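In response to reviewer comment 3 from the previous cycle, which asked for concrete evidence that the modeling workflow produces usable outputs, we include below a single protein chain processed end to end. The sequence was submitted unchanged, and the resulting structure tokens are shown without manual editing.
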Amino acid sequence: MQGMCRDVKTEPKQPPRLGGNRAALFAYAIAGIDVMAFFATGVSLVTYFYGFMNFSITESATAVTNFMGTAFLLSLFGAFLSDTYLSRFKTCVLFGCIEVVGYALLAVQAHFRQLRPFPCKDVPLSQMNQCESANKGQLAILYTGLYLVAIGTSGVKAAAPPLGADQYDEKDPKEAAKLSSYFNWLMFFLTTGALFGVTFVVWISENQGWDWSFAVCSIVVGFSILFLTLGKSLYRNNVTKGSPLTRIMQVFVVALRNRNLRLPENEHELHEIQNNEARYDTEILRKTEQFKFLDRAAINRTDQEASTSNAHGPWKLCTVTQVEETKIVVRMLPIILSTVFMNTCLAQLQTFTIQQSTTMDRKIHKFEVPGASIPAIPLLFMIILIPIYERIFIPIARKFTGIPTGIRQLQRIGVGLVLSSVSMAVAAIVEKHRKSIAIKHNMVESASPLPMSVFWLGYQYAIFGLADMFTLVGLLDFFYSESSSSMKALSTAISWSSLAIGYYTSSIVVSIVNKVSGGWLANNNLNKDKLDYFYWLLAGLSVLNFGFYLLCASWYKYKKVDVNPEDDVPSNKVKEGKGKIEMSIV
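The workflow returned the following structure tokens.
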């Protein structure tokens, strides 16, 4: 007993007094600059592929969606390294450097004509015989640079958000209340970065050249890494605790091994780490009633085999907390799957809206808005609405709900899903109006811009931008708050994987719809296509998807944390600050 008390005294009970808003500012910066470069590249790559690398329209769209999807999906790999081997800070620096090299390689290829084919777009008929596809060497340079960017940005996306969130101690009620605000302001910086990307960087690519555009992306990402290192002395760096995937596998293996054992009637007989043995950054999770089969992994074996072998090895006995960590991941899967379709709609909106903009009047007086800059419309709305949400909506909602974040994360995600279906319906109405103008002015076969302002597209984009503000921030906050300390980055990356799957499935959705409908989107002329029908279909499917989400959210049980009685923070305040109580979204 005396030795136990000695151990308690040597363990720090409070985290180092670092972090806070000042440290989080560096995470805001690298995340915003990374999105600026990535978003600017993503929205305009179709033009680069089609006009400078001689891809077909279909090949260009497929290459872009594959690039975007891979970048988001690989964030799982970056998160795994961050949680298992590297700190968040080291992951940002390492992957940021890879991203810099990728943009630099793309800039070199765009600068030297020998490294890319003779462009086919807008060339005189006398020079059409020089038009040829990119050779293997040129494609190798292109895809090497492109996927170095994808790998680099994936690591930054996985590590930068949790790096900033780590600067707030969830066990301190004051800092825990700031954590949700952190995700709102993170979205603000991401949106601001994206806005600079689709305006400033896109303008450079169209007026100064693609080599300048890629070079600017490489330089600013490099400077963001240097800026991140300046704050190194301020950070609360996570301590790696081994592979979270291994911990999950251990639970399944031990539970399967103990499948014939009977669960004890008293749950306190299950194996668990004690409060006086835990570090300050270790959460002890309460047992929940879902997935009782997995509870068998925490059964203390008392038979002769257990007494003569290493019964307490990680592959033979797990703690209740480890079992609950696994349950959390399993419970999260339906939530993330129910948000995939919204991101499929986002991918469709990005590609088809850009094409719609090319058929419309894009002039503001003498200035013509680049088609790739159309996403600036929802970004401007989000920049205005995020501070309003943070400064006005949350305080008012908090008075009615008593919840520090105003509404629960799952409720916030649900609001975003509803708005996404509304956005698809509005997109269908606007497209119907656009086609009616083409018919009215006998411009169905004309390549000239219709007498209809491109800002009509702002309605659907603004609503979807608002939906993204609710859903993406809700997902980031939800996965970070609900995950254990050993898998914060991995859980954050799961939210990005929803975007990845959405981009991958977008082209599949178009192919299926074309095949079943007889070719709603088969023409190369939007004035003849039935894009409005397609948008109505997406709106209807979004409503069904929301129904599925309601079931998943109602079934989900928030994690419950046991509070160490030796901690200075009252348990009721910790629970209130962290918001870890069961809820129903309906």
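Confidence is low (pLDDT under 50) at residues 1-13, 565-586. We consider this sufficient to address the reviewer's concern, and the full set will be provided in the supplementary archive.
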